[in-house]
Design goal:
The chain contains 18 helices and 11 strands. By secondary structure, it is α+β, with helices and mostly antiparallel strands.
Length: 474
């Protein structure tokens, strides 16, 4: 079941974050006994990254709770299965939230850090305080007991795997209730009275929805970039160019830091590649690969015959000219399909045609691999979108490539799509600038359209809050 798989992924991610947070907290407590009671810069960055990742993970789990709520008369298999998903997802969110809160509340410095205003996290001001209000209240505890009671009164029980989750989460929640949850809930009740009524802890734009958890895709089937604009980009883009994209209201934005959430690689169709790579250096390199004709198309055809044939087929009536990693994996697609998004920027590597030919040749190798839900850049058996870009242009003894930055985010060494935009920002006006902007279409939610914008606006985009639709007026 797709929803159950999504829940399992978020549960595993929650466990990983809790383990890292416990480790960081232990190291901090050990260090402060000898050195200082202040958090170091690295400790602050790590904790904030973990908080952002955790908040979004819980948001996904709560969206499953909301999708499955309101069904308590279990008189059919379908209704029982829906209730089971509600039960397990609710217990998961409650359990991990309590664990997270307990770790943070043990240290005043951590509480103060999370309560600071930091819009780059995309969570808004007082997000942690509202997060506590959300989980540490009588209403949550009541719902917990009600769901348990409904489940126990049901004649059919969970299968073995779900039963294991159920018992694990229920046990942990009960243990927290015995120890700290009641005390924290009562303490929190005083804060609630001081600050007014409870508000949703995730950022909400007024009038959009009562809860962000209910939004799977807003504007379903409608993107701000229109076909005419795709044609405009197609007339300016070249093989080897990198596309950064933004889709608002997408669950796939969860867990991905920064405004830009997706990256793709433009390869062009066969004719366009042949024309573009009719270059002396490229022809010479192709011949060193054993292709007597020196044609780039023959190089791809000889090394990847099945994949090459795939590029000659169409994607919903459009020619395939893009390589990207999306669920379920690395695929060839059309620019029209890839640009079903709300904002896009075309970035051109400051490299020779030979270097771009090598990058696309590398990218062909990865086509067919599954999507990397673990964001593990150290392995090549699965790739996330930006990992495809990183590894296609990765420097080697035979390739100049691009020196992309890797960020340590919540214990993982990765390069989010937004880091590519940040690299362009950092290298602006530098002789070492590796990418330059070709075209930027900036989505405007209030106008319901994407408008061509300038380089100055693009350079600032890497600093936009990831949930800027909720937090900013564009």
């Amino acid at each position: 079941m797709k929803t159950l798989n999504k829940l399992n992924i978020q549960r595993n991610e929650s466990k990983r974050i809790i383990a890292l947070l416990e480790l960081n907290s232990t190291e901090f407590n050990n260090n402060k006994q000898v050195k200082t009671q202040l958090l170091s810069k690295d400790q602050k960055i790590q904790t904030l990254q973990l908080w952002q990742c955790f908040a979004e993970t819980i948001f996904v789990i709560e969206s499953i709770v909301n999708e499955t709520s309101g069904n308590y008369i279990l008189n059919s298999t379908e209704k029982r299965n829906t209730f089971y998903l509600q039960l397990i997802s609710f217990l998961s969110a409650y359990r991990f939230a309590l664990q997270f809160i307990e770790i943070i509340e043990q240290e005043t410095s951590l509480v103060k850090l999370l309560e600071q205003k930091n819009l780059n996290l995309g969570l808004g001001e007082s997000a942690y305080k509202r997060f506590k209000f959300h989980f540490l209240n009588v209403k949550m505890a009541t719902r917990f007991h009600a769901l348990i009671l409904i489940y126990k009164s049901n004649s059919e029980y969970l299968d073995e795997s779900l039963e294991k989750m159920y018992k694990e989460d229920k046990t942990i929640i009960y243990d927290y209730a015995k120890n700290n949850t009641i005390k924290l809930t009562l303490k929190n009740a005083v804060d609630i009275l001081k600050t007014g009524t409870f508000k949703a802890w995730f950022p909400i734009q007024k009038g959009v929805a009562n809860t962000i958890g209910n939004i799977k895709v807003w504007r379903n089937g409608h993107s701000l970039i229109i076909p005419e604009q795709v044609g405009q980009i197609l007339s300016k883009i070249q093989p080897g160019d990198i596309l950064l994209q933004r889709r608002e209201w997408q669950a796939t934005n969860i867990g991905i830091p920064g405004f830009w959430s997706h990256a793709a690689l433009f390869m062009g169709n066969t004719n366009r590649r042949d024309e573009f790579f009719e270059d002396e250096e490229v022809i010479k390199w192709v011949k060193t690969k054993g292709v007597i004709s020196g044609k780039y198309a023959d190089l791809l055809k000889n090394n990847y015959p099945i994949k090459f044939e795939n590029t000659l087929t169409q994607d919903n009536g459009y020619e395939k000219n893009v390589i990207e990693s999306i669920a379920p994996g690395v695929v060839f697609t059309s620019l029209q399909q890839s640009l079903c998004c709300d904002s896009v920027v075309v970035l051109r590597p400051n490299l020779s045609k030979l270097e771009k030919a090598k990058a696309l040749f590398n990218a062909f190798y990865y086509v067919g691999l599954p999507y990397d839900y673990n964001f593990n850049f150290q392995k090549d058996d699965a790739l996330v979108c930006s990992e495809l870009i990183y590894k296609s242009y990765q420097p080697s003894n035979n390739q100049k490539g691009i020196q992309f930055p890797l960020n340590n985010i919540a214990g993982r060494l990765i390069m989010p799509a937004n880091a590519i935009a940040k690299m362009v920002f950092d290298e602006q006006n530098s002789k070492q600038q590796q990418l330059k902007m070709v075209l930027f279409l900036d989505g405007n939610e209030s106008k319901q359209k994407a408008e061509e914008s300038n380089q100055e606006t693009f350079l600032k985009s890497c600093s936009r809050p990831k949930w800027h639709v909720f937090l900013d007026e564009k």
